[in-house]
Amino acid sequence: MQNYQHLLLAIDYSTETCAIAEKAKALAFCYHAKLSIIHILDNIPMPDTPYGAVIPLSIPADNVLLEEERLKFNQLCDKLDIEFNQRWLIWGVPKQAITEFASQQQIDLIVTGSHARHGLGLLIGSTANSVLHHAVCDILAVRISD
């Protein structure tokens, strides 16, 4: 088995995000691997933008909701001490955008949280479950208690 070279931490701002991030950082340290972080925006409408689905993190946004998301994401990444050029804020459907990004960036391991699902949630599925079945790399789903 080859060592991991590039890990991707996929976050959703759950209360356990920092704990999941610490696990990802520890793995990256153990493997001397690069650690990237991604958050997929699927909860705010996408305004007409000249830059497409990838949100530039160094340029303030004209859209109030987008600017709030950009600031929130950068603050979390600063807290987690993740390099600026390894941060990705992208519009899309999380399960598709995460696996597409991982493939494009040659990610070896995706680290994400996994909520226990009950009732209707079992039928609909989760982002972590979908990523598990569609990613071309390894997945670490960190259990998040409900």
What this model shows, in words?
The chain has one domain: HUPs (Rossmann fold, 3-Layer(aba) Sandwich), CATH 3.40.50. It is built from five helices and five strands. Strands 3-2-1-4-5 form a five-stranded parallel β-sheet, with helices on both faces. The protein starts with 5 loop residues before the first strand and ends with a strand.
Topology:
Elements: E1 6-11, H1 17-31, E2 34-41, H2 64-80, E3 87-91, H3 94-104, E4 109-115, H4 120-124, H5 127-134, E5 138-144
Parallel strand pairs: 1-2, 1-4, 2-3, 4-5
Main features:
146 residues, alpha/beta, Rossmann fold, 5 strands
Question: What is the total domain count?
Answer: 1
CATH top level class name: Alpha Beta
What's the helix count? 5
Task: Calculate the mean pLDDT score and round it.
Answer: 80
| Rg, alpha carbons | 15 Å
CATH architecture: 3-Layer(aba) Sandwich
CATH topology: Rossmann fold
Q: Strands of the biggest beta sheet: in what spatial order?
A: 3-2-1-4-5
Q: Globular, elongated, flat, extended or rod-shaped: what is the shape?
A: globular
Q: What is the strand tally?
A: 5
The helix-strand sequence is EHEHEHEHHE
Which structural class is indicated by helix and strand composition? Answer: alpha/beta
Strand fraction band?
A: 15-25%
In terms of per-residue confidence, which ranges show pLDDT below 50 for 5 or more consecutive residues? 118-125
Helical amount:
25-40%
What do we call the CATH homologous superfamily? HUPs
Q: Termini, distance in Å?
A: 34 Å
Q: How can the largest sheet be summarized?
A: 5 strands, parallel
